Amino acid sequence: MVSRQAVLVTGGAGYIGAHCCKALHGAGYLPVCYDNLSSGHEAFVQWGPLVVGDIGDSRKVAETIAAHGVIAVMHFAAFSAVGESVVDPQKYYRNNLAGTLGLLQAMRETDVSKLVFSSTGAVYGQADSKPIAEAAAGRPINPYGMSKWMIEQVLADYRRAYGLHSFSLRYFNACGDDPGGDIGELRDPETHLIPRAMMALQGHVDFSVFGDDYATPDGTAIRDYIHVADLAAAHILALKHLLGGHAGGAFNLGTGSGFSVLQILKAIEQEAGRAVPYVIRERRAGDPEFLVADPSAAFDVLGFRPVSSDLATIVRTAWAWHRKAHPARDG
Length: 331
Hints:
Elements: E1 5-10, H1 15-26, E2 29-35, E3 50-52, H2 58-68, E4 70-75, H3 82-87, H4 89-109, E5 114-120, H5 143-162, E6 165-171, E7 173-175, H6 193-201, E8 208-210, E9 222-223, E10 225-227, H7 228-243, E11 248-253, E12 259-260, H8 261-272, E13 279-281, E14 290-291, H9 296-302, H10 311-325
Parallel strand pairs: 1-2, 1-4, 2-3, 4-5, 5-6, 6-11, 7-10, 8-13, 9-14
Antiparallel strand pairs: 9-12
């Protein structure tokens, strides 16, 4: 039996990382999950070994890479709460940026030169009222987005100086859950729109719509929602391109179209059979009315096409998971 090639997945016990571990397994690789479990879930590690550790511990990362014969790295480990990053920027720069430097040191020491990096649409800052292309990056407005943008610059320098080949994949709104129901979106506290709306429907939290006076068809903000299964598929494509000799680059992962907050709530109502209770509040400072990706570069270079990011699939898979994950008050 031919052994599977190992890929180190930092943050592999988290929402997107775990879905990528499942996709790696399905594509014939062995995902080696490296996670400190500060926000990840041990139960999500189902398709390969778990190593508990911090990415800043370059010695342990290097030992893990060597022990498993790792050929490439997918890097998801990061703090990602925008509001918290404003209040405590040191936490974000120390973990996200300095931690990544520790990971990169371990990769250099073990001669691993392929990296797929989990970046974010937050590198664009305030958006224009049209789909955003990659050239618009470099204007983050919070420490979370800045930490990711700084990492992208580090990766570019490492490419030039050390021959590191890497893709920075800039997500827009990751959503939906594993169609098989094995894993899903699960964090405390929950801040993302779709799971929070579903938790409100289940009686766990209160739900607010921030702003109904935007210059959009129904007055609520529009975002580009991409199913986590499509994100995982894009990571597999990026990995295969790197292993095939591609030098890498930065690409948006989105659909090129968006849905408003009220459209999301209506879709949840149609799936669940009852309306989400909510109140209207004032806009939050810094929230743009329109944030949609131009994903054409990923389409052209990676051959990426979202196949699960229609709103019905997003909501159906999310509702199935959240009924399982938060059943207590779900009537």
